[in-house]
Amino acid sequence: MPTPPLDALDVKILECLQADGRITNQELSEKVGLSPSPCLRRVRQLEAAGIITGYVALVSPDHVGLTISAFVRVRLNQQDEKHLAIFETAVADFPEVMECYLMTGEADYQLRVLVPSLSDFEDVLRRLTRIEGVAQVTTSFALRPIVYKTAVPV
């Protein structure tokens, strides 16, 4: 089903909700210049259309002991459907993998991994290299974030 076009009010609603997902409908309606009922109806339409996919609390990795952030590039022996599926199914079960992308270029996949220590990263690395079809794993460690955004530019 095609996504309906967003008008200026939809964009304002999305910007407000991305800045504060716990905002009340009353506060949201005041910020965007709608009465509460039409505002809630628009939010529900954005949810039903799949534009709003959920609401979360953003947790500081450092405050929960996840101080090591690694970017891992993975190359497979073969890029056929079987090996892609094996890798994707396996990596989806790694709680340390925050993001995984199928890539173009030298690596087949790029992962963002959060762990509390280098020894924990070593464990992740060992599990990654045991996945059938993994040929090479290359890692870069993040020193500090420069730009980190959760809001999608609408």
Automatic annotation (TrEMBL):
Any one GO biological process: regulation of DNA-templated transcription
Read off the InterPro entries from this record. Answer: ArsR-like_HTH (IPR011991), AsnC-type_HTH_dom (IPR000485), Dimeric_a/b-barrel (IPR011008), Tscrpt_reg_AsnC-like (IPR019888), Tscrpt_reg_AsnC/Lrp_C (IPR019887), Tscrpt_reg_HTH_AsnC-type_CS (IPR019885), WH-like_DNA-bd_sf (IPR036388), WH_DNA-bd_sf (IPR036390)
Q: Residues in domain HTH asnC-type?
A: 6-67
Give the stretches traversing the membrane.
none
Q: Which UniProt keywords apply?
A: DNA-binding, Transcription, Transcription regulation
One Gene Ontology cellular component? cytosol
Origin, by domain of life? Answer: Bacteria
The molecular function terms in GO held by this entry are:
sequence-specific DNA binding
| Keyword Transcription regulation applies | yes
Question: What PANTHER family does the annotation carry?
Answer: LEUCINE-RESPONSIVE REGULATORY PROTEIN, TRANSCRIPTIONAL REGULATOR AZLB
* Name of the protein in question: Lrp/AsnC family leucine-responsive transcriptional regulator
